[in-house]
Amino acid sequence: MDEVAHYRQLLSQVINQTQRRVIDQEKVPCREKLVSLFETHTDIIVKGKRGVEYGHKINIARDKKELLTHISIEEGNAADVERFLPILEQHTVTGHEPGWRTY
Questions:
Q1: Residues paired with 61 in a beta bridge
Q2: Would you say the C-alpha torsion 97, 76, 37, 5 has a positive or negative sign?
Q3: Which of 24, 27, 69, 77 is such that its CA lies 20 to 30 A from the CA of 91?
């Protein structure tokens, strides 16, 4: 019965966000949206003109020899520009020259 209550609460959240977006024409922040009943931790990721994706944003940095020097899984849709300087600082401290790839 706990499982039924769990999904009832999630469905109530979906109905609420749908009413806010469609009927009230309110912009609901991504962090308040539920996009999966079965993987509630799924984030909405917007990457410029490439469209919307769902999942988790992963930052990977490597040095010139392809050695991975940084891996992080972001919560939400943190802007790449917000993450760039902290990751670059980590490379400066460790002495690695970064090669960038964001997924």
A1: 70, 100
A2: positive
A3: 77
The gap between the terminal CA atoms of the chain, to the nearest Å, is 39
Structure tokens that stand for 69 in this block: 């020097």
pLDDT per residue as tens, the chain (103 positions): 698 999 999 999 999 999 999 999 999 887 788 888 887 877 777 766 777 777 777 778 777 777 777 777 777 666 777 777 777 777 665 555 555 554 4
Residue bearing tokens 């002495």: 95
Token couple for 22: 């469609």
pTM of the model: 0.50
Tell me if 89 sits within 8 A of 48, measured CB to CB.
no
**CA distances, 44 to each of 4, 26, 75, 79, 96 (Å):** 26, 17, 10, 12, 32
